[in-house]
Amino acid sequence: MAARSPTEIEDAAQNAPEDALSLAAAPPASPSVTTALKHAPMGIAIFDDQMRYLAASRQYLTDQGMSPDTPLLGRRHYDVFPEIPQFWRDKHAQVLAEGVELREDEGDRYVDGEGRVHWVRWSMAPWRTDDGRIGGLVLYTEMVTAAVEARRRLQAAEARYRALFDQAAMGVARVSGSGRFLEVNDRFCAITRRDRETLLASTFMDIAPGEDNVATVVTQGLALLTGEIDTYALERRVEGRDGPVWVHVTASRVDPGDGRPYLVVIISDITARKQVEAEQQHYQGQLRLLINELNHRVKNTLATVQSMASQTLKTEADPLTAFEKFESRLLGLSQVHDVLTRESWHGAGLRDVAERALAPFVPPEAPERLAVEGPPVWLAPGGALTMALIFHELATNALKYGALSSRERGGGEGRVVLAWTYDAATRDLALTWTETGGPPVAAPTRRGFGSRLIERSLRGELKGAATMDYRPEGLVCTMRATLSDPVEAAGPLGAG
């Protein structure tokens, strides 16, 4: 390609003006080439080796912010654009000196004379004369500012999304329409106690087993994917490696526009809250039970006190003696109330009840006169009160007439053994009160209040019975009862 002089270029432009197109090169361009250059959809400029314009397309003029009739032929590029950065000057010089082709397909930043930022995709290539000498260069430009800015906005949005996704305080996952995990963040892995590889190879139904859970996930997921609902939230138990985990789940539909919508699932760990709720429900249930039990026991206690007062006053003509007996029986009743209060009215150990009820009847200097033997047995509150009253009546009788009586009454050396056995399978409790070493015993001519209280109490509260055997060497009272509740091996405080 032989280069023309500037005079020949100007003559060619005057003889064949082409709107916003200035064309100059050797050999002369055909009309079809001229037309193609004029309407090229990209910026094209042809320079000589001094960077003087030989030709420029209409799109080039438009991209440079110039009018279509701007005269460029023969003018140096750097005179038209004096503000052009050194970066571009160096690229032009490299192409003209080395004959290399340069290009930037992604786009380079360019600031025009008014300070506006543009992004341009470009390429440069040398053109040569017939003798092979570099005659100049051809510059191709395409303004891609809108595309680059859109791409940068998208990249910024993706970076923000990635930061939010990865650093979110809650578990976040993208789930396909089939329920398979597409992406999970670190917090999602931590909450479900599973590693990322395991989750990405599984579905949401895999970590939320159970017919109810799977049915809900599938039904709600389909409703989301079909657009029936926009979002849904629920609480579910998922299976982690270390056991079940309760999570609050929020799922929303995302439609990227490619016909393949997916779900964004956000979970938060609510296991601690669920544990607290379960404990609150348990304690509320215990409180209701306690209140109901207290109401029941107060009524029963008042009825017992009324019965004791009535029977004591009927059988004792002397008011002072009647008062002493009534006071003693109330004291025995209060002893077991202390035990039940200590155990929050959940019950009491049989040994604790016996020792509390019988302690006032044994001299401190002779503790060997009373022996309590038997395995640990836990009594419900009603059973504990009943046994306390029975033990008090037996001890009162032994203190007045039997093995615990004083020397003045023919005693002093007597001894009482309270023993029991328990069958956990049938919940049958068998007790024996055995007196020895006291005054000679004879069967009473009439049944007293104590005997009636023992028999009635066992028959009512503990569905049992009592037998009195008045042997000469001492009373033997055999009692049996059936405990209404399963007996624990030990009470809350380990009482027997």
Automatic annotation (TrEMBL):
Signal peptide: none annotated. Residues 159-227 form the PAS domain. It catalyses: ATP + protein L-histidine = ADP + protein N-phospho-L-histidine. The keyword Heme does not apply. Transmembrane segments: none annotated. Keywords: ATP-binding, Kinase, Nucleotide-binding, Phosphoprotein, Transferase. Residues 293-376 form the Signal transduction histidine kinase HWE region domain. This is histidine kinase.
